[in-house]
Amino acid sequence: PALRAWCAFLALYELPNLRRVLSGAPLKGFQGGLQDTPSARRLWALAARAWPSPLGPGAAIHIAEAWFFIPEARKGHGSVNVAAAITCNAILFLFHALRQ
Fold first, then answer.
1. This model's pTM is above 0.70
2. Is the model more confident about 27 or about 13?
3. pLDDT tens digit string along 16-53?
4. Which candidate, 45, 58, 44, places its Cα nearest to that of 8?
5. 74-82 long-range CB contacts below 8 Å, 24 or more apart?
6. Is 49 in contact with 14 (CB distance < 8 Å)?
7. Between 34 and 7, where is the model more confident?
C-alpha cells in the first residue's frame, strides 16, 4: 500500500513536467542539459515515468535517471534535492523489485 501511494504521488508530481516537455515549452532544470530536439523531448517524457510497473522497470528508469541527472545537478542544471529524491526512489524501487 505504501509503495502504491508513493507511485501515485510520483505520477501526479510528474504530470506537469510531462505536459511541459511534450508541449514544446523551454527546457529548464535537469532538462536544460538536453538538446532541444523533438527526439530528446520524447526521450525525456519517457524517462519521466512512462513505465506501467512500479517495480522492475521503475527501478531501471530511476537508476538511469540517477546515473545521468546527479552529474547534471552538480553542473547546476537542476536541484541537488531532486537528484537525492531520484536516488532514493532508485533504491526503493530496486529493493522492492528484488524482494518480489
1. no
2. 13
3. 877 777 777 776 665 666 666 777 666 666 655 545 55
4. 58
5. 75/33, 77/29, 77/30, 77/32, 77/33, 78/29, 78/30, 78/32, 78/33, 79/29, 82/29, 82/30
6. yes
7. 7
The residue to which cell 532538462 is assigned: 31
* Helix (H), strand (E), coil (C) string for the chain: CHHHHHHHHHHHHHHHHHHHHHHCCCCCHHHHHCCCCHHHHHHHHHHCCCCCCCCHHHHHHHHHHHHHHHHHHHCCCCCHHHHHHHHHHHHHHHHHHHHC
Cell triple for 18: 510531462
C-alpha cell at 58: 521503475
C-alpha cell at 65: 535517471
Q: How confident is the model at residue 42, as a pLDDT?
A: 67
